[in-house]
Amino acid sequence: MANKLLNDARQNKKDEFYTQLSDIENELRHYKEHFRGKTVLCNCDDPRVSNFFHYFAYQFEALGLKRLITTCYKNQTPDLFSQHDCERAISLVYDGDKNGNRVPDPEEIGIHPLQGDGDFRSAECIELLMQADIVVTNPPFSLFRQYVAQLMRFDKKFIIVGNQNAITYKEIFPLIMDNKVWLGYGFKGGAAHFISNYEDTASAGDHRAGMIRVSGVVWFTNLEIKKRNEELILFRNYSPEEYPKYFNYDAIEVGRVENIPCDYAGEMGVPLTFLDKYNPHQFEIVGQSLDLADMTVVKKRLGKSGGGPRFYLEQDGNLRRLYERIVIRRRKPA
Ligand SMILES: C[S@@+](CC[C@H](N)C(=O)[O-])C[C@H]1O[C@@H](n2cnc3c(N)ncnc32)[C@H](O)[C@@H]1O
């Protein structure tokens, strides 16, 4: 069900699914050194039910945080599934353990009513954003573009969950190309189970009660992580037979990341999953097929546009339309 749920979320504004604590722990263990002395904001999180709040409140001292702020959206009651029935929301502020029991007790958490509904774009939420050093959350997928644009405008560090398809958005891809945003460590197998009461269409083996399984889900970040410095080990050699050029762009097709040839200096088209292994010292990102594909030659050949811009391969006299590709080039000679 590749990406379908998250795409649906964007189209139908079905934004109510919640991240599991284990998934948050798995990702955030790679960023621990970034949090010392920092204010963290979780600005799409009902603090009373959010596992993001839970994680940071319980790890407050271990991470050496300065402050934790969370806000919720159109909600004041501590229900997991927000009904969006309240035009006022709340923010919570936690400054760490005061009574020495190393647990965030209710009396240690400051509850502040907001003037408005807690929309991350509201003036009062932007005020909180300005106090933050690092923003960590799973934002509404339907507003992902606006969400990231706001983080960039206020020059914030972040670790956020998103749909893999967002990589290709015209607002997001340039940030990835310019090394302003990259992918985090991610979810096992590129899929995650979120706590939700939406209908789950996962196969029986993947179904978990009270959850939806979503594939093609990733973490986006602009915090330095070790894997960005790890080089992809390449062992294949280039040959024109094994790596044909596209019909409508001057680059070779590399259908699997592990098959990137070690001795090819020109442009290569690779699947989006390449970004999981992307080391900016090893490769340069040239663009994506959505922007680079020459569709006029395709139209001329097929007599029709054949859908949105994509690369095509010519095989046995026919044109084969490929999935979205990222075009890369090696930085270092082999
Ligand atoms: C995908 S859910 C994730 C919730 C939580 N961050 C988590 O992972 O457990 C996105 C959340 O954003 C909230 N939301 C929707 N629109 C919002 C907005 N304009 N401003 C702030 N939050 C919003 C939704 O109510 C929902 O709780």
Notes on the protein architecture:
The structure is a single chain. By secondary structure, the chain is an alpha/beta fold. The protein folds into two domains: 4-228, Rossmann fold; 252-330, no CATH class. The protein is built from nine helices and 16 strands. The strands form four sheets. An eight-stranded mixed beta sheet has the order 4-3-2-1-5-6-10-7, sandwiched between helices. Strands 11-12-16-13 form a four-stranded mixed beta sheet. It has a two-stranded antiparallel sheet with strand order 8-9. Strand 5, helix 6 (144-153) and strand 6 (157-163) form a beta-alpha-beta unit. The longest helix is centred in the middle third of the chain and has 10 residues, at 144-153. The protein is elongated. Residues 78-82 have low confidence and may be disordered. The chain binds S-adenosylmethionine. S-adenosylmethionine (SAM) binds at residues 15-19, 44-45, 50-52, 73, 82, 118-120, 137-140, 143.
Ordered list of secondary-structure elements with their pairings:
Blueprint: H1 4-12, H2 21-28, E1 39-42, H3 51-58, H4 60-63, E2 67-71, E3 90-94, E4 109-113, H5 123-131, E5 134-137, H6 144-153, E6 157-163, H7 173-177, E7 182-183, E8 191-195, E9 211-215, E10 217-221, E11 252-253, E12 268-270, E13 283-288, H8 289-292, H9 295-302, E14 312-315, E15 318-321, E16 326-330
Parallel strand pairs: 1-2, 1-5, 5-6, 11-12
Antiparallel strand pairs: 2-3, 3-4, 6-10, 7-10, 8-9, 12-16, 13-16, 14-15
S-adenosylmethionine is lined by residues 15-19, 44-45, 50-52, 73, 82, 118-120, 137-140, 143.
